[in-house]
Structures are given as structure tokens and as C-alpha cells.
What we know:
7-stranded parallel β-sheet, globular, alpha/beta
Amino acid sequence: MQTSKVILLTGASSGIGEATARLLAREGHQLIIGARRTDRLQALSQEFSNIDYLAVDVTRPEDLQKMAQHALTQYGRIDVLVNNAGIMPLSPLSALKTDEWNQTLDVNVRGVLHGIAAVLPVMEQQKQGQIISVASIGAHLVWPSCAVYCASKFAVRAIMDGLRQETDTVRVTVVSPGVVESELADHITDTSAREAMVDFRRVALPAEAIAKAIGWAIAQPDGVDVSEIIVRPTASPY
Length: 238
Ligand SMILES: NC(=O)c1ccc[n+]([C@@H]2O[C@H](COP(=O)([O-])OP(=O)(O)OC[C@H]3O[C@@H](n4cnc5c(N)ncnc54)[C@H](OP(=O)(O)O)[C@@H]3O)[C@@H](O)[C@H]2O)c1
């Protein structure tokens, strides 16, 4: 088993992704990180010599292909993909925020599929690799105002479990966080959903807690597939 791995990570410009980039870089892995806010990625890359960054919008399949190509050109292999990028513009369905519904599905579902498409052929050829997707407790439960977000995360679990059953060489892992401190709720435009989130998110884990779970799943031996980890704040009922 390789101790230093070549890892692609999306959504590394804040929250769970940023914490994961820091933890994996400290552990000595080679990272290629992506997001749209490249100023934040550049700062991480300046802090750690083993972090490369690229401008990546996960709704664009070609951006994921570009990440994979960078890893192959520079390091000759791809050991791990972490599909972490996600958005959560919550609202009740009656608010008819159809653009936000579509955006949620584009980023949270199609973004994961674009990541899988970029690395799966490479990993199958290598006969090793690991694809990790960050889902949510919202992949297990549904709440009012969360229907589309939860649908997107249920879909991520379904896609990942299908992938797990289809491959006997690639390790397939879902990491499902409970409430975590991040910028995720900052982009909610619906007033009622935004206010509900203030109470819902009162008890939250630091992002490092999820980074550690991701790091632990990566550290397992090649023959060990950690299929899903749920990490919640002890004091939270959710
Ligand atoms: N925080 C929680 O309570 C919680 C709980 C369960 C699951 N999660 C999941 O954890 C993951 C990380 O979220 P977070 O909590 O760390 O929130 P966050 O701080 O808002 O981070 C989200 C990340 O996704 C990136 N992103 C958004 N749209 C993107 C796009 N189109 N292309 C590429 N990157 C994009 C953002 O980067 P740019 O804006 O720079 O592109 C950012 O780096 C998400 O999948 C989220 O659903 C979070």
C-alpha cells in the first residue's frame, strides 16, 4: 500500500474541503485541489508545497477531466478522488426556486458523476483507487425545506452504492456528516429556511472532524472498503 497518495479533492476553498486539504497535506499526500474561488486555493497551495490547485467548476465535466489529466501528467497516477463540492440553498418547494433546485442537482449530483467519469477508467486500469463522496445525514432523512438537497444526497448514496457493487478494484466510500461549521448555510436565499437553520446549526462539529474521517478511510488497506461513515455532533439529535 502506498503511504503517500495522489489525491484529487473538490470544494477545497472552504469548510470541510479546506480542512481535508490541510489534514491530508500534513499527512504527506500529494493533493490536486479544485473549486471556483482560486484565490483561496492559491493561499493553501502557497502554504503547502504538496498542494497543486486548479480552477474547477464541478458542473463542467471538462474541469474534472483537467484535474485527472494534471494528476496523470505530473504524478503518473490517481489514488483517490474526494467528491466534496456541494451547495445547500434550502427552501420549501412551494417557494418554487426552480433555478436553485437545478443548481443543487447540477453541483451535488452531476458534479459527483463528472468526478467519477474523470477517474474511474484510470483507476480500473491501475487496478486500484478510491472514490470518496461527501453525502450528508440528509442522505438518510428528509426535513421540510430540504427536499431537493436531501434528494441530491440520497442520489449520491445510490450512485456510490451502485458503483461499489459494480467494481472489485476501486474502493467506494460515502462520508455523511451531521451539522458541521462551514459556509454551507450562508447562501440560503429563502428567509424561513435561513432562520430555521440558525437553530438547526447551533450544535456543529468543526470541519476537522470530517477531515479526520476522510483521512481514516483513505488510510485503510487496499482490500478494505469503508462503505459509509456517519459523523454527528454528540449533542445533536440530527
Ligand atoms: N456543513 C455541514 O453541516 C454539512 C453537513 C452534511 C454534508 N455537508 C456536505 O459537505 C460538503 C462540503 O460543504 P461544506 O459544509 O464544507 O460547505 P462550504 O464551506 O460552503 O464548502 C463548499 C465547497 O464546495 C465548493 N463548490 C460549490 N459549488 C461548486 C462548484 N460548482 N464547483 C466546484 N466547487 C464548488 C465551494 O467552492 P467555491 O465556491 O470556491 O467553488 C466550497 O469549497 C458538501 O457536499 C455539503 O453538502 C456539509
